Amino acid sequence: MLFTSTVAVALFAIATNAQTSTTCNPLKKECPEDPALGMTFNQTFTADSELDEDLWNVTAKAPSFTDEGMVLTLSEKGDSVNIQSQFYIFWGSYEVIMKASPGAGLISTSVLLSDDLDEIDWEIIGSNQSSVETNYYGKGDQEQENAKYYPSEKPPQDDFHNYTVNWSQEKVDWLYDGAVVRSMPYAQALDNGNMFPQTPMHVNLGIWSAGDSDRPGTVSWAGGKTDWSKAPFTMTVKSIRVVDGTNNATSYSYGDKSGSFKSINVKKEGKSHQAETISKPPAKSATEQFNGLSKGAKIAIIATPFGVIALATLIGCICCVKQRKLGRRERAIEDAQWEKENAEMLAYRKQMAGGMFSQAGGYQPAPTASPSPF
Description:
Mean pLDDT: 83
Order of helices and strands: EHEEEEEEEEEEEEEEEHEEEHHH
Oligomer: single chain
């Protein structure tokens, strides 16, 4: 069941302005071309992930990474975490698998945003455990009342859910866990379709505290004041998938200041820098590098360690032989010395048995004394 909250939308417009802005509005002045994705991009976040600066721009506090995914954390009042893609899509789809942050006042967001502030949103209020919010804006008009809520069987803060936007020239579909929960045809957008989001968009992911607003209505919309004693508050993104509906595009530019999709110039002159970065093959593992070598190179690599082992073994054997020869020589000398000493000992014992030393100058027993003449 869908329902609309006029008051909530108006307040939301004020609250989200902090994370939905543009550095150059082509409806007001000439702006640089937007680099096109022109292809499909998938990224799953793990503890080993990092954000490639060629693909992502961190506009506020940087996220961290765990085994669950990319973690956007608010730790204290004034914190804001937001990242945006360096590439744009012109029609296509955007899919995020994420777990929203709990807590009154906290807003977890998944947004498509253009330079002239066309916008397609998923918003999850931290204290709202029974529904998720869809929204859109055209040309930055924050007075529009376009928000609708869809009931969630399970709290979006407790587990991961799939938030998808399918965007074409004909309509926008919002899908929650694979089911279409809202569909908006071009003609049904405000101002006879003129406020339909229709210009090239980049991806935005973020978490912010609407509960810190000094506007009572904004705080009420966000579920109350943010209680920072319960910080940190975290929004976790497991993966994203982005498909550019304009294949092989290099860049997009505005041909005039109308903001109409008809004015968008599509350049197709090879890949954008961002698309080239995505298309680079991943770094090969050691096994993959070895398997890619020629047969001769593999033999050389295998032979080298075996050659070293064989050489070490040979040296060891030579040392062992030398040591054994040296040992036999030393043993022979020791045996000869022992035989000499043993012979001398036997001779000594023989002499002792005879009662004297046979050697000249040796000890002689005293002669028997003659009877005294007295």
